[in-house]
Amino acid sequence: MDDEINLDKLCAEYGYRFAEEVSRADDFNAKKAEVLITKALDVLQEQGLYAFALFCKSRLSKEKAGAEKIEALAKELLKRLNLINDGDFLDELLRDNGLLTRLDDLKFAIEVLEKSLIYAKFHAKAMKEVSEE
Fold first, then answer.
1. Does the predicted model carry a pTM greater than 0.90?
2. Distance (Å, rounded) from C-alpha 114 to C-alpha 111?
3. CB–CB of 22/113 below 8 Å?
4. Rounded to 5 degrees, what angle do the CA atoms 72, 106, 86 make?
5. Domain around 41
6. CA-based Rg of the chain, rounded to a whole angstrom?
7. In which band, very low, low, confident or very high, does the pLDDT at 47 lie, cut at 50, 70 and 90?
8. Within a domain: residue 45?
9. What is the mean pLDDT of residues 1-20?
10. Which helix (H) or strand (E) covers residue 110, if one does?
11. Which of 119, 127, 126 is nearest to 37 (CA)?
12. Which of the ends of the chain has fewer CB neighbours closer than 10 A, N or C?
């Protein structure tokens, strides 16, 4: 990981991308994006990173496209921070010496994803407010 990285700026960038890309997924809008992002954030905060990955994989048809965007961006963010490689998200978490086995990296990954999803939630809420005006 680059020692000079501004994590708040990175989280803001990904928060924006989560909100924008989920809201543009099939059959989604800003309101639906806010709801799905909030659900994903709740799972991450209450149950952890593995449950978050399972949540993204398990969404049914009406949330599937948005959940796939969330998973892809989460994977991209963690890869950018050199916390995972380019394999399947769940496989990267579970592999020998994977992210779930490295406690400090795991805590860091959860913090960064959590902050990004919080920014995404508020960005989607702002997008919803603008579209309702």
1. yes
2. 5
3. no
4. 35
5. 7-127
6. 14
7. very high
8. yes
9. 88
10. helix 103-132
11. 119
12. C
Any domain includes 55: yes
Helix 61-80 with 30-47: angle, nearest 10 deg: 60
Amino acid occupying residue 130: V
Query: 19-28 b/e with 16+ CB inside 10 Å = b?
Result: bbbbbebeeb
CATH code assigned at 65: 1.10.520.30
DSSP 99: G
Residue 133 in domain: no
The answer for 49, left when phi > 0, alpha when psi is -120 to 50, beta otherwise, is alpha
Residue 1: how many other CB atoms lie within 10 Å: 11
CB-CB contact of 74 with 15 (8 Å): no
Please give the tally of structural domains in the chain: 1
102-108 own/partner pairs: CB under 8 Å, 24+ apart: 106/49, 108/81, 108/83
Q: Which amino acid is residue 32, in one-letter code?
A: K
Q: Which residue matches tokens 């579209």?
A: 131
Structure tokens at 8: 């708040």
